[in-house]
Write a structure and sequence with these properties.
Blueprint (H helix, E strand, L loop, with lengths): L1 E6 L6 H15 L5 H8 L2 E7 L2 E15 L2 E13 L8 H16 L2 E5 L5 H6 L3 E2 L4 E5 L2 E4 L7 E5 L14 E3 L8
Parallel strand pairs: 4-5, 7-10
Antiparallel strand pairs: 1-2, 2-3, 3-4, 3-10, 5-9, 6-9, 7-8
C-alpha cells in the first residue's frame, strides 16, 4: 500500500531523514552537495512510502521573495525526488500535489529552481518560468544572482500572485548558505 505523509520540520526521525537524503542524492548525483540537502531539511516534508520503502520526497521551506518593493511569504520547493525504478508511476505528481497544497494553505506564492529536465513537468502543473532578473539580499547587500543554469519557476496561490509580477523588475531572494536559488 502506498502512503503519503506530511511531516513538519523536526517530525522525521534520523533514519527517515537519512533515507530521504539518500533518495535525493541518488536522484541528483554527485553535484548534489551537503548544503543542497540542508536547504530542504527545515521544511514540511512530503514523503511517499510503500511497504516501508521511501519512494518519493519533496520539501516546502519558508523563504521570503521580494518583488517591486513587496515581500512575499514563499513556499520554496526543495529536494524533489522519485526513486530510480519508480518513475512513471505518478509519484512526482503525488508529492507535488501535496507540496502545492501546503503552498496554497500557508504561503503567498510558491517558487523553485528546477533542473532542466523537470521544467516541462512543473509548467504542466501551472508553474510559470521566471525570465526576469534575479538578485539576493546578502550580508554584503543586494547582489545580482543571474545564472544561465537557473530555471526559477513561480506558483500562484489564491491571492493571485505572482501573475502580476513584471519581469522588468528583479525577483529578490533572501540569504542562505550555498546556492541562493
Amino acid at each position: 500500500m502506498t502512503d503519503v505523509r506530511l511531516a513538519e520540520s523536526g517530525e522525521l526521525n534520523e533514519r527517515e531523514l537519512a533515507a530521504a537524503e539518500v533518495l535525493v542524492r541518488s536522484a541528483f548525483g554527485a553535484g548534489f552537495r551537503a548544503h543542497d540537502w540542508l536547504h530542504g531539511v527545515d521544511g514540511v516534508h512530503v514523503v511517499v512510502v510503500e511497504d516501508g520503502v521511501l519512494l518519493a520526497h519533496a520539501s516546502v521551506v519558508t523563504r521570503t521573495l521580494c518583488h517591486d518593493g513587496r515581500d512575499f511569504d514563499t513556499g520554496y520547493v526543495e529536494a524533489v525526488a522519485v526513486a530510480d525504478g519508480q518513475r512513471g508511476r505518478g509519484l512526482g505528481r503525488l508529492v507535488m500535489d501535496h507540496a502545492e497544497a501546503v503552498i496554497r494553505a500557508r504561503h503567498a506564492i510558491g517558487a523553485l529552481n528546477a533542473v532542466q529536465s523537470a521544467v516541462a513537468f512543473y509548467a504542466s502543473r501551472g508553474w510559470t518560468p521566471w525570465n526576469g532578473p534575479t538578485m539576493a539580499e546578502t550580508p554584503d547587500g543586494l547582489v545580482d544572482t543571474y545564472d544561465a543554469a537557473d530555471r526559477i519557476l513561480l506558483f500562484s496561490t489564491p491571492s493571485g500572485e505572482p501573475a502580476e509580477f513584471a519581469e522588468s523588475v528583479p525577483l529578490i531572494c533572501d540569504w542562505r548558505l550555498g546556492d541562493l536559488w
